[in-house]
Amino acid sequence: MRNTRFYLCIALISVFAFASCKSKKIGTNTSKEELPRNSTTGPKDQFPEKKTPPIAVHLQPLNYQLPEIPREFRGVWIATVANIDWPTSPTDPFEKQKNDFLKLLDYYKSLNFNAVILQVRAAGDAFYPSNLAPWSKYLTGKEGKAPETSENPLTWMIKEAHARGMEFHAWLNPYRATFDLKTELLSPSHDYNLHRDWMLKYGAKYYYNPGLPEVKSHLTSVIKELVANYDLDAVHFDDYFYPYKVENQSFPDINTYNQFKSPGQTLEDWRRQNVNDLIFAVHKTIEATKPWVQFGISPFGVWRNQDKDPKGSPTRAGQTNYDDLFADPITWMKNGWIDYLIPQIYWSMDYELASYRKLNDWWSNNSNQTNIYIGNGPYKIRDNADKAWDNPREIPDQISYTRTIPNVQGNAFFSAKSLLIKNQDVAQTIKNELYQETTLPPAFQPKKPAIIDIPVVLDITADQTLTKIHLEKPLDPAIRYALVQGASELDQLADSEIHPIWVGGMRARALEVSSLNKKYLAIRWIDHYGRIVQTQVYQVP
């Protein structure tokens, strides 16, 4: 019995040895590529091969430095109130409104602009679904009526702006409650109908009473809802704080003043304090919700005239921020409550009462370490009593002058249709002479330092339609977007077309861009504050 078992074992060992040798011989003559892609058995006389997991191999960046991309703010205001710029008509189908918006974006993208400032709250209303305001009549033709689409218009607009590498600044008019006195057309959910005690009639409009604590709380909630729910780059206020003065009328807030003033506080100082309190509250709300979202304000172009204050500008403006609108941008900047200021200097270079040239100098000297961009008024071109605006070079000359001023980092233009509908020749001059190249908007420093994981690229693949960038692990949410360039030669990279890929904090594992199919690829990783985290250059395998 034992001998039988012994010989049986010897026979089995011989069979297995022969099979093993035969398997090795076939394996050496058959490449992996010849096996079926999904085969699990291989040839019938080959044992299954257990594959080991592939080891991740990082694509090593080249030791090659790209020059810095210039920084300059190039913004355009898109006014929705009274359908100034967009939508062209509130009764247009939403699909037409979308097409018109894309035409606006594409036009300004072609001029190498890098930011849009879109009015999302014109008069106690909203261009987005809100629990705090009705849908705007300027979007749907009737206040409170939702647009006929399953899309969120604001989400879509932000996405389209970002897809073109443009920042999206959400512009709100905080205190204007109505644009006229036709209150019977207001939605039942408008604050005029819900909180009549908040409203003050002045001239041909109603305004939120800035002196009421509940108004400040409500407006702060509006900002929080907007910032929390949307991928904004900035919250933006315009120049309407206390309203511009109406002849022979007084703003009717004397009762509120008597109720809330501090001992010895003048009416003017109390009003300025009300605005300051709102600006501070909005600043703190944004900081607590999404600290990377900028807060910018575009005040009237004159703080104070020198005849009122020796620290004021050499101007003779009929109304000013400090004395008439009760807005004090100097205080906001000194306290760090805002990230940027765009004074509206809508006058010609040497206008006698308020010179563009002199006001550029004044704001530069009073920037208080805040980013200053200049607001320009191309809507006046060939349409103003000041004959300087008959010269189509007025705006190009203004931009050129602004670029010579320290502490000023760009321009914004009011409004979108003024360079699209009427003055395309001026727009082309701006592009050909001043905006020839793509730039990035200015970056900001976070209040608290943060460590950001630098993306590691595993592989880059390209076909006829897409270039795919595969990453070792999901992106750090602090990465906001990437700028990708491709070229056949290294020395061509810096001048090649820039393709933005906006990820908005998503933990993407791979990025896609229209196929570059080039030998070399450059990726600039940019964080929520606009800072370039790192620039990587690769030779595509």
TrEMBL record:
Protein name: Uncharacterized lipoprotein YddW, UPF0748 family
Signal sequence, start to end: 1-19
Keywords from the named record: Lipoprotein, Signal
Organism field: Algoriphagus halophilus
Stretches assigned to coiled coil: none
Chain spans, region Disordered: 29-51
PANTHER family, sorted: GLYCOSYL HYDROLASE DIGH (PTHR43405)
PROSITE patterns for the chain: PROKAR_LIPOPROTEIN
Domain Glycosyl hydrolase-like, first and last residues per copy: 72-389
Pfam families membership: GHL10
